From TrEMBL:
GO cellular component: cytoplasm
Membership in a protein family: Belongs to the glucose-6-phosphate 1-epimerase family.
Organism: Gossypium harknessii
This protein's name: glucose-6-phosphate 1-epimerase
A GO molecular-function descriptor: carbohydrate binding
Enzyme Commission designation: 5.1.3.15
Top-tier EC class: isomerase
Residues reported to bind substrate: R66, Q84, R89
Gene Ontology biological-process annotations: carbohydrate metabolic process
Amino acid sequence: MASENVYVEHCKGVNGLDKVILREIRGCSAEVYLDGGQVTSWKNEFREQLLFLSSKATFKPPNAIRGGIQICFPQFGTIGSLEQHGFARNRLWSVDRDPPPFPANTSHRAFVDLILRHSEEEVKIWPHRYECRLRVALGPGGDLMLTSRIRNTNTDGKSFTFTFAYHTYFSVTDISEVRVEGLETLDYLDNLKNRERFTEQGDALTFESEVDKVYLSTPTKIAILDHERKRTFVLRKDGLPDAGEFIVSIH
Ligand SMILES: O=P(O)(O)OC[C@H]1O[C@@H](O)[C@H](O)[C@@H](O)[C@@H]1O
């Protein structure tokens, strides 16, 4: 079998939408839909699902798929003139068959490169031309790594600013059994209080009621401990300054 068939399978998913399945030999896997460039499934070697996907996810483009890892670009949240979380999660991405080389080459075999370019329709609401590339890679040990590269292709050389997020929905058991380490003492914007800025107290985060916060200047490593399931997600990021509740890249 060609190596592409062992580690990377291009096929159809829900409602006939294009998806890519990444597999590693120990049995872990990930699924990526071209709609939204969105990871919708990430399973460990015991075939346990690590991401949350809402049972109400419709898989009806251009509606965003609710769950998994949404790509928020060129706007995260409501900071800006675009609709919440920008438009990349509503667009159909393409497989990038000839991506530019990666500065740090990894030995991952299960990966796919996706690309989203501006559409002329979109230029009317966000007047810039861009290429947004995303590599989703599954490591031999089951770690999931997302790498994004944004290129300004404005013909007049005009610069643009944007915000970006990996809007990740993790699967946990009982939220009251979950603890998040790495955000203590940080400043955050509280979406439930008109984005007012507060400072987190010293202890690891636990949850007793609804929480909707965006933490600023977060460390490169955050851990989510699910006591009931005895599972810890370790999130590492590079290059993005802030974090929403759980919006970071996963290594
Ligand atoms: O419903 P959406 O647009 O997918 O957003 C989901 C959540 O996204 C989070 O980033 C926001 O802080 C929440 O307020 C929002 O509920």
